[in-house]
Amino acid sequence: MSAYTNNSHSNYNGALFSFKHSGHGFTGQVSYTYSHSLDMISNGGEGENFNGASITSQLTPTLGPGNLNYSNSDYDIRNNWAGDLVYEEPLKMSNKILNEVVGGWVLGAKTYYRGGEPFSIVNGGVLGSFHTLGGSLMPDLASGVTVSQPVNPTGSNPHSCVDAPCLNGGQFVADGNLAHYANQADFGNLRRNTLYGPHYVNTDMSVLKKIAQAERFTFQIGANAYNIFNHVNFAPPTGDISSEAFGLITNAEAPPTSPYGSFQGAAVTQRLLQVHGKITF
Q1: pLDDT digit string (tens) for 96-155?
Q2: What is the DSSP code (8-state) at residue 98?
Q3: Which residue numbers in the chain have pLDDT < 50?
Q4: What own/partner pairs with CB < 8 Å and gap ≥ 24 does 173-176 have?
Q5: Is the separation of the CB atoms in 105 and 208 below 8 Å?
Q6: Rounded CA gap, 215 and 96, in Å?
């Protein structure tokens, strides 16, 4: 049996600051966005996940007090910096050959830095015992641990989660003993999307050159470089306390833009170079 309700709510607060400059062939913009969004289930639970750690099911039997769904949304990115630059060579030479060599260049670049994506700690080891749930079971926090106390004993560098677990599983089990996670007999008390993964940074660039131009004909050749600095961005660590990989980062984060699409998971994580030509007539 399935039940549907519109007894849900969400909230969003944000602020955007931007600076734009244009002149001498340059057009550039730098912006910063602070935002905080909360909801019950992101994207209506329809499976259109923003990140790989999305929870798309109801976590407790009721949506009243004690419900664990209402928390940070899947796309609660608190801090986001973005920079755009386009330069079009404005110089015109009297020498036709020299003008063809140095003129007609267009350079573009985009760089961005954002905070980490939210993710959840879950207990998948006893999920089968809770037949009223559709997908995820939240754990119990151990005595003395609060939701506002994220556990990262390795320090401020989350990338260290690649070599050693950066989450202390004992703090997410009621009696503090990780071996007893299978003894959980309730729906937990930790809300979804409580912790945040590593930050994300990426830079893309493009260059374009007009090779031939007539009255009704233009030929251009160029290249696009995605993740030009070949920087590795890490995904959130494994959040299932019943997994042997709990607290370890086992995947890299794919860039949001690539020759294969403009959505998460649409590309490989290393540098990509695309060469292209364009004829306009």
Answers
A1: 776 777 777 899 999 989 988 888 888 887 765 665 556 788 888 877 776 554 444 444
A2: H
A3: 149-156
A4: 173/139, 173/140, 173/142, 173/241, 174/140, 174/141, 174/142, 174/143, 175/142, 176/142, 176/143
A5: yes
A6: 16
pLDDT at residue number 81 = 95
pLDDT in tens, 11-32: 999 999 999 999 888 999 999 9
Q: Which tokens go with 157?
A: 């560098």
- Please give the span between the terminal C-alpha atoms of the chain, in angstroms, as a whole number: 61
- Residue 209: phi, psi to the nearest 5? -135, 130
Instruction: Please name the residues in contact with 1: beta carbons below 8 A apart, sequence gap of 6 or more.
Output: none
Q: pTM of this prediction?
A: 0.80
| 3-state DSSP percent of the chain in helix, strand and coil, to 5 | 10, 35, 55
